[in-house]
Design a protein that fits this description.
Elements (H helix, E strand, L loop, with lengths): L2 E5 L6 E5 L1 H13 L10 E3 L4 H4 L3
Length: 56
């Protein structure tokens, strides 16, 4: 299941909107294997604003 992310102020920075536990589980496995710096996770990018995400 892909992560759902949105831009976080710059072109190279993103905030996780959904899938935070999946990200940290994958990061933990990558760290154990010595691949923590090269973690790539499938993700979908959205333009949701914080107000819209909260259902307002």
């Amino acid at each position: 299941m892909p992560l759902l992310v949105r831009p976080n102020g710059s072109l190279e920075s993103f905030e996780i909107v959904a899938g935070r536990r999946r990200y940290f589980a994958a990061k933990s496995i990558a760290d154990e294997r010595g691949e923590g710096d090269a973690l790539l996770a499938p993700s979908w990018k959205t333009a949701m604003t914080p107000m819209r995400w909260r259902g307002r």
